[in-house]
Amino acid sequence: MKNNLIDNENILLASPLEVIEIEPEDFQQATEISRQITDEALRWQTYQNALGLIGFENWLKQRKPELHIDKSQCSILQPQFVTIDAVCHLKVNNLMVDLININDLTDEFVAIKKNVVDSPELVGHFYVLTEVLEEQEQVTISGFVRYDQLNNYRSSENLSTSQNEYYQVPLSLFNAELNQLLVYLNFLAPSAILLPVKEASGKASQSIINLTHWLNGTFDIGWQTLESLLNPSQAALAFRFRDGNRQKNNTLDNSSSALKRGKLLNFRLEQADESVVLLIGLMPAEAQKIKVSVEVYPIKGKTYLPPDLQLIVLDETGYSVMQAQTRNTNKDIYLDFTANPGEQFGIKIVLNKMNMTEHFVV
Fold first, then answer.
1. Residues 37-47 as b or e (16 or more Cβ within 10 Å = b)
2. Which candidate, 132, 49, 57, places its Cα nearest to that of 85?
3. Engineering a disulfide at 193: which of 36, 125, 237, 247 sits with its beta carbon 3.0 to 4.6 angstroms away?
4. Contact (Cβ atoms closer than 8 angstroms) between residue 5 and residue 172
């Protein structure tokens, strides 16, 4: 693993950097942006970040002039984010880009402020490395990483923060193929990289549930055992993996290699609240693939699901690829499919005009 990191880092360092010349008016613009800051250290940080933003914006205009760039919501222009050591929420087409200004590309790690990765107000679909070379009157762009890749790395490595609240991210995690970044910005749908959102309580929700963690015995908050959510007859049925034709006699005992967890979903409707149980099942398949089952059951004390409830499987771009719908006498609904390692998907439950979506990665 370490050798791979070193090899990837050498590739990044050996790759030609994108170099953008800074014009006198660019320095003047950065000065104007930073002039609002009274603290001297923060003013210099804002000035450097402003030059990085201007350089990146100019690079996009040179390489892909058809891209729509909107910097009106950039953190650097918002007084409440003045202490953020990054440029967040630069909108390119419909994607959010965060710029991380680095001082030395030869360092093994990149320091990224913790809240730039964790806060729903600051996260971006992509994190791009810039370096301001003021004496040379240049800005360089050296690499980028997708949010989902950065978030998965943070989770898998149990990434900790230093006392000054920075994540130390290996330089090798960043992709030096900047042409690929341009392709992403030009064609990728925002739903392809799911970002955390802020709940009504103000607390950030978990954007993607990593099912590999489930297979390793670590479960996300809110996902419970079947016995705690269903009555005994429901749980007995739910323990089974069924095929797409719902042949219930073609089963696999849960005690072998199948694993299931459920979550209670509550729909607050105008007439009355309705609650259902969403179950996700996992079972190893051929070629390191995972068979995923998706089921919806009524809660304890109820016999049938609400009529016209829809169960929809979404691909990583947010498009519907499978769906099922209840009738008046449905006791449960069921879908299954096979997923590859690293594949993302969403499960959407629709009832009347309300819907809830859970996002997963295998």
1. beeeeebebbb
2. 49
3. 125
4. yes
Give me 113's structure tokens. Answer: 């402020």
CA distance 99 to 131: 10
Cα–Cα distance, 296 to 299 (Å, whole number): 9
Closest CA to 162 of 125, 112, 118: 112
**DSSP state letter for 204:** B
DSSP 8-state symbol, 311: E
Report which of 177, 153, 149 is spatially closest to residue 167, judged by C-alpha positions: 153
Q: Which two tokens stand for residue 193?
A: 């990289």
Q: Chain-centre distance of CA 147, in angstroms?
A: 6
- Cβ–Cβ under 8 Å, residues 309 and 298: no
Instruction: Please give the model's pTM, rounded to 2 decimal places.
Output: 0.56
Under 8 Å CB-to-CB from 191, ≥6 apart: which residues?
314, 316, 317, 318
Three-state DSSP at 50 gives helix
Distance CA 53, CA 50 (A): 5
DSSP state of 264: E
Task: For 132-173, give the DSSP string.
Answer: EETTTTEEEEEEEEEHHHHHHHHHHTT--B-TTSEEEEEGGG
CA gap 86, 35 in Å, rounded: 17
Per-residue pLDDT of the chain (362 residues; tens, 9 = 90+): 233 333 444 444 444 678 999 899 999 999 998 888 888 888 899 999 999 999 999 999 999 999 999 988 898 888 777 778 899 989 999 899 999 998 876 678 899 988 898 888 889 999 999 999 988 999 999 999 999 888 878 766 666 555 557 888 999 899 999 999 999 999 988 878 877 765 444 444 446 888 988 988 888 877 888 887 877 777 776 666 554 433 433 333 343 457 899 888 887 665 556 788 899 999 888 888 899 999 998 887 787 888 888 899 988 777 788 888 888 777 889 999 999 888 889 899 888 877 788 889 88
